[in-house]
Specification:
Length: 231
């Protein structure tokens, strides 16, 4: 798993062109609802940093909900960013969203330069989770919010059985057929299973310095919104 994470930029480079289609298809579009719910927790701000912005869906939705005047989106994958840049151009939002290639484990951004920070389905992929979270903390101004959206493992026995079947059998197969990449979509269930869940993830947020942390479970716990503040 750790080896795969070290090459995570490559993995997303390979699937970038199919990412949006597969994302919405495989989640039956529920991901759009999850994103909207997470963004509702933000209060409007000037400068927002969207970490692991990928193809820019989360950043574009933040603008739609008028939650930021300007967004900087960073991601490891050049190809994901290239797809994102096209979408931002099409939406005529180039002045309000600026994308740059960065590793969250060592951001080139200045201390205390953002009023809010978001990260959707990104932290699970970090090769160095705690380093990434402390970098997020460093670039935020005091009294700023962090909102993280991430897959999680359902608790209910029945839901877990359905989820396991879908995530380990259906999803890797459909992902492989469409993206033609065998590894990418078998990585997804493994990465969710191995990632700290709910209270355990809050401990990582607190270790990085965040306070007033909490989480909200969505859709039987398949997805979780985590939140906190740099006070
Ligand atoms: C599942 S995608 C999520 C993209 C987007 N936020 C969304 O909601 O669709 C995960 C993204 O995390 C990025 N990523 C993984 N590790 C990263 C790191 N250390 N720094 C920056 N981005 C990273 C990947 O390149 C990929 O684009």
């Amino acid at each position: 798993m750790q080896e795969e994470k070290k090459n995570i930029g490559n993995l997303f480079d390979r699937i970038a062109k199919h990412y949006d289609l597969l994302n919405h298809l495989l989640s039956f579009n529920i991901d759009k609802l999850w994103r909207k719910k997470a963004i509702k927790r933000l209060t409007p701000c000037d400068e927002l940093l969207d970490v692991a912005t990928g193809t820019g869906d989360f950043a574009l939705e933040i603008l739609k909900q008028d939650k930021a005047a300007h967004i900087t989106g960073i991601d490891l994958s050049k190809e994901m960013l290239a797809v994102g840049k096209e979408k931002i151009k099409k939406a005529q939002e180039e002045k309000r969203i600026q994308l740059q290639q960065e590793d969250c484990a060592s951001l080139s951004l200045a201390d205390e330069s953002f009023d809010a920070l978001t990260c959707a389905f990104g932290v699970r992929n970090f090769a160095f989770l705690d380093k990434g979270l402390s970098e997020m903390y460093r670039v935020l101004k005091p009294k700023s919010k962090i909102i993280i959206l991430e897959f999680s493992y359902p608790k209910n026995f029945l839901i877990k059985a359905v989820y396991n079947f879908y995530f380990t059998s259906v999803l890797p197969l459909v992902g492989k057929i469409i993206s033609k990449d065998r590894q990418a979509y078998s990585y997804l269930p493994k990465s969710v299973k191995n990632f700290p869940q709910r209270e355990d993830f809050l401990q990582h947020l607190q270790k990085a310095g965040f306070r007033n942390t909490g989480f909200q479970s969505l859709t039987f716990g398949i997805c979780t919104i985590y939140y906190g503040e740099k006070i």
